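Record minuted for everyone:
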Amino acid sequence: MKHIASLLLIFTASAFSLFSQTNNLILFTENGEKFQVVLNGILQNTNPETNVRLTQLPAPNYKCRVIFADTKLGQLDFNVYFQESSEELTMSVKQNKKGEYVSRYVSSIPIASAPPAPANQKIIVYTTVAPEVETVTTTVSHSTTTTQTGSASSGDNVNIHMGVNMNEAGADINIQAGGMNMDDNLVESSTITTTTTHTVTSTTKGPLVVTPAGVDDVKEYHGNIGCPNPMDIADFQMMKQAIQSKDFESTRLSIAKQVLQENCLLAGQVNEILSLFDFENTKLEFAKYAYAYTYDTGNYFKVHEAFEFESSVEELNNYINTKN
């Protein structure tokens, strides 16, 4: 901890002075998917948009989550870093060759030089108080229909007896008619419908806050372990600030390696460090170096999204295979 604090004092004394003014962040989807933005766990826009400009961002970096309106697309987590003060950073959200959603740097210009917002862009002033979200839930119970079938008998009995005697003297005809008795079974059916309906409506209001993933996630990991005791969030943030404060890529890499020699990271944290580098070869070099200082080596696939080229991923995997 003391070692990291010393590095922070040396390398980041001037970093915070760079951000005395606020910055802007533009996020858009290349294929027009609508989304909501969450910064540091706070929802910024209640209505999904395809293009948003977040203004008056005071901090030099943020944890960003994009939540797609189409729930089948899920969500995307990434980090946003501002290199200068009064900067307007533009990033896109798109699908890579594997069909996975990723964030990509597009451009960075001074806010004073920023063009007017296009018609399809939603301007949102950054807030640390999440907007209220109203949820209404209605439940209706079932309806039951019952059919009953019975039988009934009605009618009269009819008995007819007729006798005929023929003799030499003539004919004798005798007809006897008894009571009429006719059997006719009639079937009657009745339908009884019972409908019971209960409607329960509840309305809740409150801020939608998304809790970012932290180091506590190690409790759910049960795979291979490359080093003990990964850095906590506070120390890790200090490490990122020390790296980010330097302008030259080679210096950033040197600081990252130096800090890592006495610390342990999560695979997701390695991925965040990789986002601080601009060049593919630098990312690959640090990814190889950091593997030996990673707690959850079974999750090291998470660093793949930091690379633009598949060849870099293949080279990293080949390197890891030689270490296992």
